[in-house]
Design a protein that fits this description.
alpha+beta, SH3 type barrels, Immunoglobulin-like, five-stranded antiparallel β-sheet, four-stranded antiparallel β-sheet, 4 helices, elongated
């Protein structure tokens, strides 16, 4: 009887152990579900999925727009530096036209302009407002207006001295303009009867000494109203037949 009870107990225990052990198919299915869940988790190793270390306030598009704006400003700045400033020169030409004559009327009126033509009875003058025809009976005086720039002219006929191989010419010039003339040079040309050039030479005028802002120093300048002397020595060929002479004045303007 005891032996039967022991066998029954052993069989009961074995059946209990076998019933608690999970089946292999169920375990394998659970493992697949776990692996699928792990694969579906987000991978934070990629930069685009990770949180930024430093907060970005501007996008790449904003930075590109700023670069384009800076480039436009640089181009505009370079154009303004490269382009010449002509506003002052143009305004002077517009505001101060070339006027050569001043007419005083009998009633006290002054008319400035340039005389275009003249008859026995009238004068046609070009003014800032157009052309005017003025009766000479209404005019009391007509005078010339000084040039707005430098205007150097001969004040007398040159004195001539002829030697064997030289022709020497001397005289004076005057600046009748409103600007200082610098490096004034008088040029003489000697011509034959057949208009062939025989000789040419020049000399600077003995004028005032001026030092300009650029450092240029000259003693051949004439301020407005000043006069200066010149002496030109022209070497001529032997037995040259000089029939007539021509002369000219050249100068420069400096500030």
């Amino acid at each position: 009887m005891k032996i039967l009870i022991q066998i029954t107990t052993i069989l009961f225990l074995c059946s209990s152990c076998s019933s608690t052990k999970p089946e292999p198919e169920i375990i394998e299915e659970d493992n697949k579900i776990k692996r699928t869940q792990e694969n579906n988790k987000p991978n934070n190793l990629f930069i685009e999925d990770a949180e930024p270390f430093y907060p970005i306030k501007e996008t790449v598009e904003d930075i590109q727009n700023q670069v384009n704006e800076l480039r436009s400003r640089m181009i505009d700045y370079e154009e303004r530096i490269a382009s010449p400033n002509l506003s002052n020169s143009i305004s002077k030409l517009v505001q101060i036209p070339q006027l050569q004559n001043e007419i005083s009327m009998n009633n006290g009126t002054l008319i400035q302009g340039t005389i275009l033509s003249e008859t026995i009875e009238s004068i046609i003058i070009q003014t800032q407002i157009g052309q005017l025809t003025i009766d000479k009976a209404d005019i009391s005086n007509i005078k010339e207006i000084a040039s707005i720039d430098a205007n150097v002219v001969f004040t007398n006929e040159p004195e001539e001295k002829i030697n064997t191989n030289y022709h020497i010419y001397s005289g004076t010039v005057q600046n009748q303009g409103l600007e200082t003339a610098s490096f004034i040079r008088v040029i003489f040309k000697l011509w034959s009867s057949e208009t062939d050039l025989i000789a040419i030479d020049s000399a600077f005028v003995d004028g005032s000494q001026i030092i300009y802002h650029s450092g240029i120093n000259t003693d051949t300048a004439l301020k407005p109203g000043e006069s200066g002397e010149y002496v030109v020595n022209i070497k001529t060929p032997v037995n040259s037949n000089v029939q007539y002479i021509t002369r000219d004045i050249h100068w420069e303007l400096y500030k």
